Amino acid sequence: MKLAAGLLPQDWYFRDVVEVARDLVGRYIRRGPVVLRITEVEAYRGPGDSAAHTSMGRTPRNEPMWGDGGHSYVYLCYGLHNMLNVVTGRGEGTAVLIRSAEPVEGESLVRARRGGKSGPVLLTGPGKLGQALDLSTEWSGHPLFAPGGLELLEGEPARCLLAGPRVGIDYARPKDVRARLRFADADSEWVSMRSRLRP
Fold first, then answer.
1. Where are the domains of the chain?
2. Would you list the DSSP string of 80-103?
3. Which tens digit of pLDDT belongs to each residue from 131-182?
4. β partners of residue 97
5. Which CATH superfamily does the domain covering 10-188 fall into?
6. Which parts of the chain are beta strand (E)?
């Protein structure tokens, strides 16, 4: 089956990070034979957001976040998990973490990369998604709007969203910890920590 979905253009990403985050739910990520539908994301609002990597200033690791939207920012978490983020805006240091997805094409390859697991546990978590796409930090800075490699496609936008606090940011200021900046597809089972989300 050939997927009938076009690439999202670069200027699609030149919007506020929260707007892009909400709009990313339901879009497709493609790398080679694997296509995933995004089901859960988190928005990181730049230097003023104590949970964002750019809150501590510019570093070699977070350099892609300071560029134009539409590029990937991939970082290694705990020395184990490659986390995929989508840069937004025009140099504001903002990005959206892709937390969970569901398989559209290439599920057998995804299952092999994930140790034979099946069902929502396959892709509910950002480290699992990075493993399923076989990502490394070498993908950081990649243009997601260009054909080939790692692409973001139009997909099927979610009909209804859930929202709640982001995960694993206890180091941030209380107001940033409480901020409802995690968004998920209300109709999908492929969502992590669903009990902390509300309409």
1. 10-188
2. TEEEEEEEESBSS-EEEEEEEEEE
3. 999 999 999 999 999 999 999 999 989 999 999 999 999 999 999 999 999 9
4. 42, 85
5. Methylpurine-DNA glycosylase (MPG) (3.10.300.10)
6. 28-31, 34-44, 72-77, 81-88, 94-105, 150-153, 161-164, 182-185
CA atoms 110, 113, 119, 122: torsion sign:
negative
Quick one: which of 27, 38, 44, 25 has its CA closest to 181?
A: 44
Which of these, 80, 120, 74, 85, lies nearest to 101 by C-alpha position? 120
Determine the length of the chain.
199
Lookup: tokens for 117 = 């697991």
The closest of 13, 31, 15, 198 to 103, measured between CA atoms, is 31
Q: How far apart are CA 111 and CA 121, in angstroms?
A: 10
Contacts of 119 (CB under 8 A, 6+ apart): none
Residue from 41, 37, 30, 42 nearest 133 by CA: 30
Burial 68-84 (b: 16+ CB within 10 A, else e): bbbbbbbbeeeeebbbb
Token pair recorded at residue 95: 């990005």
What are the tokens at 102? 């569901």
Token pair for 64: 């892609």
| Cβ neighbours for 110, distance < 8 A, ≥ 6 positions apart | 34, 36, 103, 122, 123, 132
pTM of the model: 0.96
